[in-house]
Amino acid sequence: MAEMTAKVASKESVDPSKIGADAGAGNTTETIGKGGSKPFVSIEGLCKHYPSPDKEEELVVFDHVNLGIEKGEFVCIIGHSGCGKSTILNIMAGLDEPSSGGIVMDGKEVSGPSLDRGVVFQNYSLLPWLSALQNVNFGVRSRWPGWSKVEVEAHSKRYLEMVGLGDTMQRKPSQLSGGMRQRVSIARAFATQPKLLLLDEPFGALDALTRGVIQDELIKIWSEDQQTVFMITHDVDEAILLADRVLLMTNGPDARVAESVRINIPRPRERARIIEYPGFYKIRNHLVNFLVTRSAQMAGGGSEEPTASERLARGGYPVDVDPLALAPVQKHADGSLLKSVR
Fold first, then answer.
1. pLDDT higher than threshold 80 for residue 30
2. How far apart are CA 257 and CA 88, in angstroms?
3. Whole-angstrom Cα distance, residue 303 to residue 44?
4. What average pLDDT does range 298-321 have in this prediction?
5. Considering the domain boundaries, does residue 133 fall inside one?
6. Does a structural domain hold residue 10?
7. Which of 193, 225, 244 is the C-terminal boundary of a domain?
8. For residues 260 and 265, what is the distance between their CA atoms, to the nearest angstrom?
9. pLDDT, tens digit, 9 for 90 and up, residues 119-173
10. How far is residue 222's CA from residue 267's CA, in Å, rounded to a whole number?
11. d(Cα 274, Cα 287) in Å, to the nearest integer?
12. Do 288 and 147 belong together in one domain?
């Protein structure tokens, strides 16, 4: 692999007045962790290109992605379809390869799949001939081959009970609802205790009520295990509920991770009460404004003169944003105020 040098963006603070009320930011996010050390997961110069049919210019999915994720951090990434979110996750899982750049986790380069990285997909990915308990046992036994049958089953049952499947763990996937199947997938992923858990829109195919219940269960398990989580979602409210930070991607092709938005809402968070937090709608409006307006304006380099935030983002490093520290004005592209939807 080519040398992956930890590139550090400028530490000089960006003046929010020069960025604009709708995109104000602080420092650029670096690939240097707390105390000057490398973060637990370091994504360095990641690019993904595909050759075009006419053999002219390559199709650039995303370019120069540089990120750091700390141990125990819950990070969500949001962007429109086609910006490369799932490709980034697949590269992190070792299921795909970048065109250039690389990923270092816990001091080791990511190369190929590993039990240190667990993945939960949208489509459950369960073995249909095994029961829910046996599906979880399969993962646990692979992780700890020296464990006895009693140890494996006790460990698996604990995680199935944590997701509310204590009474249905003997059923096969065909006997479970979609929500139950996804709970089995989540239980199996957490039960193997990977160093990094990757969630690819795990609730995307579920109805709103089931989605909310499983979100609560995910929070409960994560609160106990404090595993490092990287999750793709299209749901802004879900990201605010779950994440410590939300990464915002511009539209593809030639997408960038433009902002790293801090979710400074105290934990534990309750789904039914989080909207009562004074800063909830300020954070939500910032995320929605980016997705509705600025993600397209910044796409592919953009045709307009870039703001300070956009110039920094195009260097590969997302701008570190705390919406609660910004001026309260949020505007549409036409200048009209963006009102909170309550």
1. no
2. 11
3. 27
4. 60
5. yes
6. no
7. 193
8. 15
9. 998 887 899 999 999 999 999 999 999 999 999 999 999 999 988 899 999 999 9
10. 12
11. 16
12. no
Ranked by mean pLDDT, which of 149-158, 303-312, 332-341 comes out on top? 149-158
- What length is written for the chain? 342
Please check whether residues 150 and 220 belong to one and the same domain.
no
SS3 at position 255:
strand
Query: Considering the domain boundaries, does residue 5 fall inside one?
Result: no
What pTM does this model have?
0.80
Which pairing describes strands 245-249 and 74-78: parallel, antiparallel, or unpaired? parallel
- The residue assigned the tokens 């036994």 is 141
Helix H segments across the chain? 16-19, 85-93, 132-143, 149-162, 178-191, 208-225, 236-242, 280-289, 295-297, 308-314
Q: How many CB atoms lie within 10 A of CB 328?
A: 9
Tens of pLDDT, residues 199-239 = 998 887 778 888 888 888 888 888 888 889 999 999 999 99
In terms of residue numbers, what domain contains 164?
128-193
Query: In this structure, how many other beta carbons lie within 10 angstroms of the beta carbon of residue 180?
Result: 20
User: Does residue 34 sit in the same domain as residue 181?
Assistant: no
Closest CA to 137 of 37, 109, 147, 287: 147
* Collapsed DSSP state (helix, strand, coil) of residue 74: strand
Query: Tokens at residue 264, please?
Result: 């400074």
Q: Based on the domain organization, do 90 and 179 belong to the same domain? A: no
Asked if 182 and 91 sit in the same domain, the reply is no
Biggest alpha carbon distance in the chain? 65
Q: Is residue 338 part of a domain?
A: no
Tell whether 95 and 108 lie within a shared domain. Answer: yes
* Cα(98)–Cα(60) distance, integer angstroms: 11
User: Is there a single domain that holds both residue 185 and residue 112?
Assistant: no
Q: How far is CA 19 from CA 142, 258, 318, in A?
A: 50, 13, 14
